[in-house]
Design goal:
Structural class: alpha/beta
Order of helices and strands: HEHEHEEHEHHEHHHE
Keywords: Methyltransferase, Transferase
Strand content: 15-25%
InterPro entries: Methyltransf_11, Methyltransf_Superfamily, SAM-dependent_MTases_sf
CATH class: Alpha Beta
GO molecular function, one term: S-adenosylmethionine-dependent methyltransferase activity
Largest sheet: 7 strands, mixed
Radius of gyration: 18 Å
Protein name: SAM-dependent methyltransferase
CATH superfamily: Vaccinia Virus protein VP39
């Protein structure tokens, strides 16, 4: 991840409004048994970690992230849960440790995602489940579509796109297949967030998080005001709802 993502509170306001309900749908769909040991790979400030703890209890969940600020935030939020600084490609656990290893909105950031998935399988017991999700940024169904349209309408050279590599239909399936996982299934999850005011939607874009936030921060006051006005024009009347869809894939560690 880039440093633009590493302020936990700002990240929660910006992307957490979508990633938190996505994590609940993700865990509900997997429905892990209460005695499962679970690992959250690339936990960030802990949206998925929180849902796993709700389902399993703090002592049944571990989490890793390469960002020290995110790990510090997650540790303060979830005492009693093992949360470590680590990269997905080199997990600090023995073979066959977990029943379930999950990764939310992270795989497409990893330089070698197949290697990371193999590592997730290594720490998962034979036959245990490995699952991941990513926003459909290639299909423009992620949570930032209207903002990106507004910015590009005014500035066709605007650098507002998230990483799209690995976020298209079939990309996660190809990665999981390449990593040698078995019994792979795919699907979609869609969250719908209602914003009671324009400010509720707009203000998190001014926090400097991710490419969108960095772009807003780079604008002079007149250009920022023009972008805000155009975004208002593109959005429905308040209150309005934004839908965001993520691809999901689940496989099993080789036996």
């Amino acid at each position: 991840m880039t440093p633009h993502f590493e302020n936990a509170d700002s990240y929660d306001r910006f992307m957490g409004r979508f990633s938190t309900p996505l994590a609940k749908l993700f865990v509900d769909g997997i429905a892990p048994p209460r005695d499962a040991l679970a690992l959250d790979v690339g936990c960030g400030p802990g949206a998925l970690t929180r849902e796993l703890i709700e389902a399993l209890g703090p002592g049944q969940v571990s989490a890793v992230d390469p960002s020290e600020p995110f790990v510090s935030a997650a540790r303060s939020r979830f005492p009693g849960t093992d949360i470590r600084i680590a990269w997905a490609e080199s997990l600090p656990y023995p073979d066959d440790t977990f029943d379930l290893t999950l990764s939310q909105l992270v795989i497409h950031f990893i330089a070698d995602p197949v290697a990371a998935i193999r590592e997730m399988a290594r720490v998962t017991r034979p036959g245990g489940r490995i699952a991941a999700n990513v926003w459909d940024f290639q299909g423009n169904r992620g949570p930032l579509g209207i903002f990106q349209q507004a910015a590009l309408d005014l500035d066709p050279e605007a650098s507002v796109y998230e990483i799209t590599r690995g976020t298209g239909e079939g990309d996660l399936l190809e990665m999981f297949t390449g990593a040698g996982l078995a019994d792979i299934t795919t699907g979609e999850l869609t969250v719908r967030i209602t914003f009671p005011t324009f400010a509720d939607w707009w203000d998190p874009f001014t926090l400097g998080i991710g490419p969108a936030g960095a772009y807003v921060a780079s604008l002079d006051p007149d250009r920022r005001a023009a972008l805000e006005r155009h975004a208002r024009e593109l959005l429905p009347a308040i209150p309005f709802t934004i839908a965001a869809t993520a691809w999901t894939v689940t496989g099993h560690a080789p036996r």
